[in-house]
Amino acid sequence: MLHGYWFKRYGIDAVYELVDLLPDQLATFFEGYKRAGWVGGNVTVPHKLAVMSYAELIDDAAKAMGAVNTLFWNDGVLVGGNTDSMGFIGNLDERVPGWDREANRAVVIGAGGAARASVYGLMNRGLSVAVCNRTVDKAESLARHFGGAVSSHGLDELAMQMSQADLVVNTTSMGMVGQPPLDVDLSPLKSEAIVYDVVYVPLETKLLRAAQARGLRTVDGLGMLLHQGVEGFHRWFGKRPEVTGELRQLLTDDIRAKTPGA
Ligand code: NAP
Q1: Ligand 1 atom closest to 134 (CA)
Q2: Full-model pTM
Q3: CB 160 within 8 A of CB 134
Q4: Which domain holds residue 254?
């Protein structure tokens, strides 16, 4: 729906297709990749690591995150890149312009793939990041991976970490449709803090509703999806497409139709 909207808007004759592959089908798929005429694509779970061995070059972001989400050609070389952190930051820049002028410290809840993208993006904007996760080992390994500006904590330290934060990000799957909500006491947060939930189904999670009720600024996860799409489209077609209100509405309506009452 996202890329189809841009193809139509910019008069590009292309299709964005879903290819459902089992791990043992990847080798054959990539043998025929060039011949099939793909200009690129996105990669999702569970192949984000495995495709690294089929790309001829891995870009810095994908190296730093240890995962590929976007494939594209550069002078005939198939590149495995990662646009998730650009999507994460692009959304924040769009929704809260100038957010990083006063922000020094962030708390990221979770230590999976979305957490890596968020931490990488925030570090690149000069913030220090406290990663709080249910499984502390995973938070520790993420902090070790990214180094000095990132610290690791269990969820028991969340309230204390939040009291010092300018931005709190939920990157867990909690709050997603079919999952229990993320129940976090937001009272330790400063009144200028921003609450960002990368979950986008539903759009308004319980966490975001609680933050709005406290008068805090909030950012939902749909824009992260839209902005990582911008980066992919740019790499495939050399054009940076626009995230229009119409596009956001199109996807919002689709998500709402799929999650009635959420
Ligand atoms: P992931 O790698 O599987 O990580 C899941 C994280 O959630 C882990 O930190 C896990 O903690 C935590 N978690 C799961 N169940 C929990 C529970 N009951 N209590 C506490 N923590 C729990 O998943 P992911 O790929 O990072 O995706 C996470 C969410 O981000 C999903 O909702 C996904 O849709 C969303 N996402 C959004 C975008 C976007 O464009 N907006 C992009 C990527 C992902 P443990 O380590 O303890 O298991």
Answers
A1: 47
A2: 0.94
A3: no
A4: 2-82+223-258
